[in-house]
Structure formats: structure tokens, C-alpha cells
Design goal:
The protein is α/β, with parallel strands linked by helices and 495 residues long. The protein contains 16 helices and 26 strands. The protein starts with a strand and ends with a helix.
């Protein structure tokens, strides 16, 4: 991919150009370390790092032009500078144009919500592939182009990385892109240049209030996906809503495309006629506009029933055959780190889940309670530098729903793990008779404590990190995988 620099400048009315515009741009980047011959470097001002400081480094690596807000004392030799009022806004215009708007060429399904995005998008991807389409997926765990997998670093990548990924998907011949769309991405316009065909709302519960400040702001950010859905030129656009979530009627009123609904009530387009939850599977019979679906699922939990209904709705508005949908759902065995059973030869059940919000923790503990014959354990913590209001809420939920609570560290980041645990413990002062609460800030010790003290027929829910194989500390990121801790503990115990 390459474009004349003059064409990029034409997208930026009012820009001041210092140097020649007679150059060919072969790449764009906002990371000076990734600059190369012929690239355009975008200087972004972040909370802790100012990209203007790395202008010369980008030039030394071969960048021939740069978007800037501030002119340097000395212009790098041979580099053309394009001065704009706001480099982020300029990036939103220039980058999708540079890649020829790949998000307008493929059918785009965006799934947003506090919980359920990863499972829902993975189900949709499998159904579309079974229907014969080439599919790209962008999510919390990874980015996939058909079977090619790369690790994801954000739920929704920044503008540059997203457009590069979409361009690669288009070049690979993808018909569809299935994408988790975060509230941050919508609020910060990371999805600039994308035109969605179908938008799905799973639910909205408390999360990310460190960024959005209020639940209303959080909901309004999610709403942007639906408000802009009618824009553009693509045909057959639709929105899918979970009508059991109180935010759905509010956002639905702002939506100007046809809507399909799901939920428990018969007034919805899709609703359960019956469902039975077992330890490792569930039966789910659905009423749908395409006829009843009698499903034998290898995933379990009421929250997964909602994820299945969301995926079914999205596929029906995309005109996918009912039999294809059913065949994929019957074979779907879940996503790593999402209510994942860990089998290490132990006499009790161990489950690892990504639940890191009050609603998420409540959902998985309620499901775990349904399959618990003995005592229910939960090992969890809360992330640092994130919404601290949810910490005591999650502590209260854990105490209410579990018999044994082990509070530990999650990804503390720059915060003191003990201080985070203190905030969780404000809800753990009055422990009912028969229940136990333990605090162990070392996550490995906390998991091993539960593994050592659990009895046959108990269930241990290890929540918060799910698929993650790392832990973010104040000064470094270390390798850490909840599942590995369980396997290693029992491997050594058997010796």
C-alpha cells in the first residue's frame, strides 16, 4: 500500500506544510520504533508520553513525513512536517484513507457490551465460516484472519493497528469481520473509517468508570455504535438488543435501522422456551423467527444462554441458514478462559473465568453454585488503575454467593496490591457463620491455598484473568497463567 503525500494532505484542510509534498508514503505509524523507509509518523500526545519527542528517531529510521501539533526547534533533515491543530483527529481522517477504507468493503459485525463479547464473536465467526465465508476476527484474546492468529493487545486496537488489520483481512479475501467494540474505542474514535452492518449489544453493567466517570457516560459511549449504524452506503443494516438489559430500550430509541431483540420474555424475537444447566453442558430450546432451535450445548450458564441468543440473532439478520447455526452451536465448546474447566486429576472442580466486573462475577458464581454439591470457593482480585468503585461491590458479591472467599491480586499495575485488597475488604467485615474469608496478595499462593483446602465435590472459581498469561505489576509484566498454576500444583502433588 502506498499513497502520494499530497493526497493525504488534501484530507486535512487548514494544515500547514513544511517541506515538499512530492513524496510517496508507504506506511503510517504512531510508534517511532515501527517507523521505516517511506513512512508517515504521527506525533501523538499521550498521558505520559509525547510522540513529538521521538520525531528525530522516526526520521533516522526512514520516516519521510510527520503529522505534528508543535514544530520542533530543528526540523529533521529531509522530513516533511504537516502541522495540524490535533494529530489524533488528523489520524482519524488520514489513516483509513491511506488503507482505502477496508472497513467499508467487508461486512462488519460489531459486538459491544460489558460482558459476553468474546464468546459471542467467536460463535459468530464459526457460524459464518461454516456458511462458507472467509472471516476475520478482532477481539480481546487475538486477531484472526481465517486460521492465522496474532495476539491482541487491546479489546479494540488503535486507529493505525485496526486499519492495518482490516486491510490485511481485505487483502486475504475476507467477506466478514467480526469485532469486539469497546467503549474506549467508541469514545476515542478508534473505529474511525469503519462502517458497521450489524451491531450487537450484550449488556451494560458497571465497568471502566475510571475512564467514563458515570454509568450514563459509559452507556452513551456504547450507544455510538448504534447511533452511527445508519450512516454510509451499505445495504441490510441491523441492530441486535438484549432487552433484559435496562440500557437496551434507551439505545434502541437512538437506532435508525431494523432491530432484532432477544431476552427471556416472549415479546422478543428470540427467547428461551426451556433450558437446563448442567456442570459441563446445557440444553437450550429457543424460539426464533426461523423456527425453534433445540440445542445441546457444550458450554453452560445462563450468561452463555444470552451469548448464544445474541449470536443467533446476528446470524439470522445476516440471513444465515438455521441448520448451519444449529450445527455450529451444538459443537461449540467455549473460549479459553471463559468458564473454562481445568482438569488436572483433582477430586473437585476448578473453573477459570475472565469475570472482572460485578455483573461478570455474579454471573459465573451463580452458575457455579448450580453445579456445586459441596462448598463454592472463589479466588479473585481487582485490577489496579481501574474503576475502584467496583472493588467493594465485587467483595460483597463474592461473600454473598461463595462459601469460601480468597481475595488476592489481579493486575495491580501502579497500585499497591494490599491497598486494592483493603478496598475489597470494606465489604467483607461481617462474615456470616459457616463462611470463610482469606486474603493472600500473592496470586499463586492464593490459588494454591484454595487447591490445598478444597474437598471433594467443592467447586473453585478462579476469576479475573481468564485467558491472560501475564500479570502486570508496578515495574514489570511477568508470565502468569491461572490454569498453569492449577496444573503445576497437581502435577507436583502426584509425585
Amino acid at each position: 500500500m502506498e499513497k502520494e503525500l499530497s493526497l493525504l494532505i488534501d484530507k486535512l484542510p487548514g494544515a500547514e506544510v513544511y517541506g515538499t509534498a512530492d513524496k510517496v508514503i508507504t506506511d503510517v505509524t504512531a510508534d517511532s520504533r515501527q517507523a521505516g523507509a517511506g513512512s508517515l509518523f504521527i506525533c501523538l500526545k499521550g498521558a505520559t508520553v509525547d510522540g513529538h519527542r521521538f520525531l528525530q528517531m522516526a526520521a533516522d529510521k526512514g520516516a519521510v513525513a510527520a503529522l505534528v501539533e508543535d514544530l520542533p526547534a530543528k526540523q529533521p533533515e529531509g522530513m516533511t512536517l504537516i502541522k495540524v491543530a490535533d494529530t489524533r483527529s488528523a489520524m482519524e481522517e488520514v489513516v483509513p484513507f491511506f488503507f482505502d477504507y477496508p472497513g467499508r468493503k467487508m461486512r462488519m459485525i460489531g459486538v459491544t457490551g460489558t460482558n459476553g463479547k468474546t464468546t459471542t464473536t467467536n460463535i459468530i465467526r464459526l457460524i459464518l465460516r461454516k456458511a462458507g465465508y472467509k472471516v476475520g476476527l478482532i477481539g480481546t484474546i487475538n486477531i484472526m484472519i481465517e486460521d492465522q492468529v496474532t495476539e491482541a493487545h487491546n479489546t479494540t486496537p488503535d486507529v493505525v493497528d485496526l486499519q492495518k488489520a482490516l486491510y490485511a483481512m481485505e487483502q486475504a479475501g475476507c467477506d466478514y469481520v467480526v469485532m469486539e467494540v469497546s467503549s474506549h474505542a467508541l469514545a476515542l474514535k478508534r473505529v474511525a473509517g469503519c462502517e458497521y452492518d450489524c451491531a450487537v449489544l450484550t449488556n451494560i453493567t458497571q465497568d471502566h468508570l475510571d475512564f467514563h466517570k458515570t454509568l450514563e457516560n459509559y452507556r452513551d459511549a456504547k450507544s455510538l455504535l448504534f447511533e452511527h449504524l445508519a450512516e454510509g452506503k451499505k445495504p441490510n443494516k441491523n441492530a441486535v438488543f438484549n432487552m433484559d438489559d435496562p440500557s437496551s430500550p434507551i439505545i434502541r430509541a437512538r437506532t435508525k435501522v431494523p432491530v432484532m431483540t432477544y431476552g427471556k420474555a416472549p415479546e422478543n424475537d428470540i427467547y428461551p422456551l426451556s433450558y437446563t444447566i448442567e456442570a459441563k453442558h446445557m440444553q437450550l430450546k429457543l424460539h426464533t423467527p426461523a423456527g425453534e432451535m433445540d440445542l445441546e450445548l457444550k458450554i453452560t450458564g445462563e450468561f452463555n444462554a444470552y451469548n448464544v441468543m445474541a449470536a443467533v440473532a446476528a446470524m439470522l439478520v445476516e440471513k444465515i441458514d438455521r441448520e448451519i447455526i444449529c450445527s455450529v452451536l451444538d459443537g461449540f465448546d467455549g473460549v479459553p478462559g471463559r468458564f473454562q474447566l481445568v482438569e488436572a486429576g483433582q477430586p473437585y472442580t476448578v473453573i477459570v473465568d475472565y469475570a472482572h466486573t460485578p455483573d461478570g462475577l455474579e454471573n459465573v458464581l451463580k452458575t457455579a453454585r448450580c453445579i456445586t454439591k459441596g462448598r463454592l470457593w472463589t479466588v479473585f482480585g481487582c485490577g489496579g488503575d481501574r474503576d475502584n468503585k467496583k472493588r467493594p461491590i465485587m467483595g460483597g458479591i463474592a461473600l454473598e454467593l461463595a462459601d469460601n472467599v480468597v481475595v488476592t491480586s489481579d493486575n495491580p499495575r501502579t497500585e499497591d496490591p494490599e491497598a486494592i485488597i483493603d478496598e475489597i475488604f470494606t465489604a467483607l467485615k461481617n462474615v456470616p457463620a459457616g463462611k470463610q474469608v482469606v486474603r493472600l496478595s500473592d496470586r499463586k499462593e492464593a490459588i494454591e491455598y484454595a487447591l490445598e483446602h478444597a474437598a471433594a465435590d467443592d467447586v473453585i472459581m478462579i476469576a479475573g484473568k481468564g485467558h491472560e498469561n501475564y500479570q502486570i505489576l508496578k515495574d514489570r509484566t511477568i508470565h502468569f497463567d491461572d490454569r498453569e498454576v492449577v496444573m503445576q500444583y497437581w502435577s507436583e502433588k502426584k509425585k
